[in-house]
Hints:
The complex is a heterooctamer.
Chain C lengths: L1 H26 L1 H4 L31 E3 L9 H5 L5 E7 L24 E9 L18 E3 L23 E3 L5 H17 L1
Antiparallel strand pairs in C: 1-4, 2-3, 3-5
Chain E lengths: L3 H21 L3 H25 L5 H31 L4 H8 L1
Helix pairs in contact in E: 1-2, 2-3
Chain G lengths: L1 H12 L7 H37 L21 H10 L11 H19 L16 H9 L1 H12 L3 H32 L4 H7 L13 H17 L11 H4 L9 H26 L14 H23 L7 H30 L1
Helix pairs in contact in G: 1-2, 2-3, 2-11, 2-12, 4-5, 4-6, 4-11, 6-7, 7-9, 7-13, 9-11, 9-13, 11-12
The structure holds iron/sulfur cluster (3 copies).
Amino acid sequence: MSEFAFWMVAALTIISAGLVVFSGQLIYSAVALLFTLLGVAGLYVFLWADFMAGVQVMVYIGGILVLIVFGIMLTHKIVSVKISQTNVQRRIGGFAAGLFLVILISAMGSASWFMEVTPEPVETVRTIGILLMTKYLLPFEAASLLLLGALIGAAMLSRKEN
Amino acid sequence: MYRDFGTILLAALLGIVMVFVPLLVQKLIAPSKKSREKLDTYECGEEVEGSAWLQFNIRFYIIALIFLIFDVEVVFLFPWAVVFKELGLLAFVEMGIFLVILIVGLAYVWVKTDLDWVKLKVAYGSGRYRKIKLEEKV
Amino acid sequence: MKQYFLNIWETIISLSTGFGITWVHMLNIKKGNVTLQYPEEKWPRPERNIGFNHDDYNVIRSRLTVDMDDCIGCLKCMRACPVDCISIETVKAETRGEDIKDIGHVGITSSGSKKAMVVTRFDIDMTECCYCNLCTYPCPEDCIFMTGGPNADRHPIDYEFSEYDRTDLIYRFAKKGSKEKMEAQMFPKKEKAEA
Amino acid sequence: MGIIHGEEMVLNIGPQHPSTHGVLRLKVRTDGEVVSDIYPVIGYLHRCFEKHCENVTYEQVIPYTDRCDYVASMNNNLGYAITVEELMGIEVPEKVEYIRIIMAEFNRIASHLLALGTYGLDVGAFTPFLYMFRDRERILDMFELICGARLLYNYIWVGGVSHDLPKGFVETAYGFLDYFEPQVKEYNNLLTYNKIFIERTADVGVMPPDVAISYGVTGPNLRGSGVKWDIRKDEPYSIYNKFDFEVPVGKGELGTVGDCWDRYWVRMREIEESVKILRQALKALPKGGDVHQAIPKKIRPPKGSIYKRTESPRGDLAYYITSDGTPKPYRLKMRSPAFTSISVLNEISRGWMLSDVIAILGSLDIVLGEIDR
Amino acid sequence: MDQLTNYLFISAILFSLGLFGVMTRRNGIAVLMGVELILNAANINFVAFSRFGGMDLSGHIFSLFVIVLAAAEAAVALAIIITIYNSMQTVNIDDASSMKQ
Amino acid sequence: MTDDRDKLISEVVEKALQGDMDAINNIEDRVIRSKAKAALHKAKKAAKAVESSASDANEDKTETSPKAEQTIHQKMAILIEEKESGSVISQEGEEEACIYIKPESWESLAPILRNDDAMDFDSLQCITGMDMGEGILESRYNFHSMKLRHAIEIRIAVPMEKPDIYSIEQIWRIGDWFEREVYDMYGIIFTGHRNLKRMLLPDDWEGWPLRKDYETPQSYHGIAVPKVKEEWE
Amino acid sequence: MTVDALYHWLNETFPFLSGNEILIVLAILIPSVALFMVIAVNALVLVYAERKVSAFMQDRVGPMGQGVGLHAGKWGLLQTVADALKLISKEDIIPRLADRKLFIMAPFVIFVGAFIAVIALPFGETIIIADMNIGIFYILAVSSFGVIGLILAGWSSNNKWSLYGGMRSAAQIISYEIPAGLSLITVIMLTETLSMQGIIQYQSGGLFSWIVFSSPFSFIAFIVYFIAAIAETNRTPFDIPEAESELVGGFHTEYSGMRWSFFFLSEYANMLVVCGVAVTGFLGGWQSPIPGYFNTAGWSIFWFISKILFLVFVMMWVRWTFPRLRVDQLMDICWKYLLPIALFNIFGVGIWTLIFG
Amino acid sequence: MGVLEHKFQDNIVVEKLDKLLGWARSTSPWYFQFGLACCAIEMMATAASRHDLERIGMMPRSSPRQADIMIVAGTVTMKMALRVKKLYEQMADPKYVIAMGSCATSGGPYWQHGYHVLKGVDLVVPVDVYVPGCPPRPEALIEGLLKLQEKIQKGRPLTKIDS
Ligand code: SF4
Ligand code: SF4
Ligand code: SF4
């Protein structure tokens, strides 16, 4: 059952990711991105990362996606939303991406992965919290600085008058 | 863990079905007389001038932007809150620094009036502001 | 800064006042309820009294009614009407003040005046009437009136007369058949005159 | 945040819109939420009032004046009656004068209640609206007691009134006033001094007095801007000079002089002043006297024109009547206060937000029947 | 589903799709979406390695930081895009770079 | 009876024309009094028509009511004449208190009315259009001063063929709407108005409805306008 | 857990299927369907209650089921049932110029978002469908899901009112998520767990161990959360997205019939969720106020639901008493009042806990 | 046409279903918040506390998409007529119209010289119930609504119409 669910989620992720890239209208891309992000959250669950799944939904869907949709609405009239993207670089892009994919997969296949068998964790949040407060304290504080920088930078940028 | 999230998946599917079924019933029993006028966009009875799909004002965007930063902050607070009692003062101070840095950000956008919807100019008067004028279009 | 906390304080105070008011109203709904539950309760209200005496109405502006037995066909109401929604046609009665049985014409009004005219048509278009009451004042016989009020003994209050069809709202007060009858009476005369 | 302009959008508010108070259409040019231009389109209720007046006799005009400002019919009737009386030189008996004043003031209260209630509705408060309607209903009950109609009365005639006061009216009126005065306090607590309401209205839509005068704005709207101009006081007609009352003006207690809250507050205060006048008038009301005594049999004013102003709940209501000596007016023009009030909308609400435009429109208290006639 | 390679496979596909998007799209926002895909692919790998590498959750923390980074990047990138749009009326990155000169 | 009355009326009118208004005012019967007043008015009009052809309007005015103390209109007429001589056509007496202004001088006069210290009419109360018959359209302005608390009426008559009046829209802002309304109803064209469009009626309406010769159209946008009630006969 | 118990029961009743995965699906689906029913009934009851409450506050009687022929029962009890039936038999309109796909999708997104949040609400010690470790965080995360739906609904209608409504509500909901999240942090600081059941366990021991009464700061946190909750459900005084007197119908202006009623349904489901979270986090969840009494499974459902209903009533009370705010004031309240208060509250609770244990 | 509308022969089940639909539609008639003139004030008064339209299940909706009943309350002018028609068109079926007051019924007091007044709203939209009065008393309006309810209940939405 869960095997089946896993493949469903994986398929959802990949198909909608394809839509994100290939859809003609930007707003449809954004909607497809919603499902991709959901799918990734689902994959996190399969990886026992429930907290990460929550974060994924909260930040990506509730935050970044909303921001992207706003961005689309701010910069687009319907006319330009409907116009599909240019195909000039499609061939080169497709080639590069395909090449990359092949390389990645062959690398994946050639390596032999060591897999530890671990029991399902009880509460990931607690561990994450402790790790954040101890081992990763510095990146944690740095993150706040990063956020501060992003906030000030973005606010300044969008305040700049033409 | 799988079971709980499987429940959610199933519930989501169920939710879709539950929306779908009444719509189907409606399709069956509701009348449907389409006409050109009926399918027109509603605008208080007037002819619509222009599409609603146009570039909207940026104000909402700024809100979303500030929101995003604080959203991430909340995300960080959750794991901290869980271990807060365990780690005691240390965690408190650490998070204090984190928060203070972000509060600086908040104060910054507040002072720079990024949180205000429109910047209103006081032209003259005795009240809090007398004649309110929008900033000039640049 | 002071303003900031003042704002919070004012908000708390004024909102709690508002809460109090609606709360009291909700608790006192039994007493404070003002709804007139129309199809079940009608005007002069059965039980609940809001403190007004509804017995002393002068008049109620509602449907116009005509007492055809009293109408002498003087056309005064028709002229007074600002919107011309009354339409009257009369035929000179052969004999003044006498009943004409077969069309139900009554010769003498209740106030004693003798009728010289037979009203063959008395239509009021209630779809057009603006309920201004102007037509009722000049009537010498008080026979056109609005229902209710002092006229309550003549006709009950009647303000609910909506219809599915517009033509049903044109009230024809003239006695049935009087038009044809009187025309029939007139035509022989005319023919005679021509002959 | 600098003003970053989005694309401008033309938005039609109305003719069918919950808060245009009828069939007004506002063509609003907005940039996001901020309104940059407003173009009121009126005439959706143009009922050819003036054409009708030229075609009916002087008595028959009265029902039509009712229908202009349909929330203050008595005041409209009164203005018309006084104008024609002055044209013809009719003296009306004292009792009639008193009855007229009582009716006009009651109707002023009713009209203001409606205005304030719908204003509450415009800013989203539903309950005060219903409370005010509940009390307005009692005034309508009283009118019904007097003339049988609830909204359009055709009560004040040239030279008199259509019915005498029914027995028990004075007590009923006192009863109403006693009931009503505490209610005003409740409205104030529930709406006027509510913080949210103040935030929504104070400092919003400021109308400086010079703008108001240039746009011909009168009535509570002008007084809200701090100009003391009330025809009842400054050019007394009927017997208003006998009463002791105040003319409330906007003082900018919670914001700026001439903001929406001031206009609202002036109306609230006027209700109280009307109650004062009513108490005096009811006390001094002559007992006997025929109300039909001075009604002319045929109204046939001499040739000439007259322009006469009265104070309706919305401001200076004036009739311009030209008579050519026939029983029908040659020309009758109504100078409606709401017409001028709405014309100022663009001036005072440019630069505000969409919600504010609704609030400002509500605070002007317009009646479309009077604007379009 | 308990195979690491599955996740790596999915992540690889996501990554290439994102790369494809970034390379072919000329609309700034679409490029941003491609970047989000790439970051997500990376995140999957982090979490997957964490899961199959002893569940010590460092991977989670990394991906948490990646998400923070993504948020900050999205905020700034969109701010830039909007600014460019406002000054040049285009979101086309090629146009924007050519107009700079 | 009627003869008597007519005689009485003509008598008092004569007296009044000589300046004795009391004669009329002393009449008991209201009907007769009003009739007399009407007759007086007529007589005055006739007199004026004769005299204005002699183009000596100002003197005529002072002749008709010499003894009354100056009304506001008279005062204003003199003031206006001072500022802008030749602009006042006539200034009538009791019945019609107003000042007739030449259409040509309206442009220069309006700002004076608004700004002059002695006049200071800051509030335009009303503009009334009027179809006087015989091809004359009139525009009547009622002014009021919030500061000095006085009011006057000014009239401008134009022929129907060329109904052009200078627009005061930019002097009194409310003039904008009032003028549009008058234009809408009578077709008086206010030159210099920035947005002279129909106001109450739809833009594609035809005709000027308040002119006396107006005919109601048969249909509007396919909506029939019944002239006779159906189901009525 | 409900699902476990059901699974066992199913295993015993259908021994031939025992161990089959169908059974676990069934064990999940049955309570989910029941929960859907709860949502539907909740909407019906709450709409009726809202109409009655508002009527009583306004000196009138509300739905009385008067009318000719068959009518809506005594006191109009069947009123909302009739409404629902009528809505189902109304025509479904999709405007010509609308973006069809997104227009159809929006109600699904919004409703599913609300529905999967309800799933995590604990109605009793064992009566919970999805008991996750990250329960409260999950609900917070999922509630941001609806925002996308609202934007889609507003945008796809190609109607200016809808666009305004969608934009406003999106800005509003995302903004108020921050104070809501921050005030929930204070709860988690005390309880040290994200699981709904864990939070409720912490508050066992009667009225005074409820978090709302545990310290002045947590009381403030409760108020902040509740205000944010009202805003997140788009109710007066924060109902600017669907403000009738401004935006006609807001984002659902173009929706008719059943499609529209899903917006309605999810609004009430959302009320259930936010009040459920408030009850869980601050008011002791399904715990009875008197420790040791009335805490059987039945009673726990009763407590939970009646606490929710109390909060919902307060929401109605607010709605029918106050005017509505303007959009910039709404943002001001969020960013300039609630957010700083919530932030300092975290410090307050932290210090309080450090000092008093 | 809906899929099942007017598709069934008359039988007992269909009759019951028709009854049910009729009941639902008549019991929850949501009206379109749409006032034109003086009558609109009386409509508001009807909806207010004293008469309380909610008693018979009526709720105001300001979007035509969600409304069932359009109460044409007031004078329809030529300028407005086209808008009224459009708004009526935009309502979702089944929809009903009540002409409230003399003006909506036939032009009322403005019939004669009203060059700009529509002589009865039935010239542009089909009217189900005419409520006379100028303005109709609230009771009269309620009575009109009850008449409309009767009419709705008599309708047979699913039964085949023999033509
Ligand atoms: S009430 Fe008025 S409108 Fe009606 S018939 Fe009488 S006079 Fe005419
Ligand atoms: S006024 Fe009276 S008597 Fe004369 S026609 Fe009319 S109803 Fe008849
Ligand atoms: S019927 Fe009467 S009350 Fe109604 S709109 Fe017409 S004139 Fe006004």
